[in-house]
Amino acid sequence: MQVTVSRKAHFNAAHRLYRKDWTDQQNEAIYGKCANPHYHGHNYELIVHVTGAIDPNTGYVMDMKVLKDLIKAEVEDLLDHKNLNEQVADFFDLIPSAENIAVVIYNKLKPHLDKSHTLSVTLYETPRNFVNFSG
Ligand code: NI
Fold first, then answer.
1. What spacing in Å lies between the alpha carbon of 16 and ligand 1's midpoint?
2. Percentage of the residues of the chain whose pLDDT score is greater than 70
3. Exposed end of the chain (fewer CB within 10 Å): N or C?
4. Which domain range does residue 79 map to?
5. What is the CA(117)–ligand 1 centre distance, in A?
């Protein structure tokens, strides 16, 4: 029997979506307002889902305090109130789209979880636009 437990988190971050090898016109055509050369912020909402068996000893899939602390250490401390393009090494050569941010978050959390657990990451860039990555 597999049960999914989920934890919500939040961070604010600035980004700019652009390719250096494209003109400003090309970048604006593809990325719209997210290509703004002066950057802009998003209020990112993150939901981390961990799926596994219930431990009969604790009744938990995993201790949510452990998950909370892991998200803080690996995600919030790294991304909150940062300029993703300029301050977060993972995005120096990677476009900080919601898709890529979700993959980076997944890769930071996964090594810290029990091997028997399945991880899935849902990232809202706006209340209406969100992405999911499950490895
Ligand atoms: Ni944007």
1. 6
2. 100
3. N
4. 2-14+44-133
5. 32
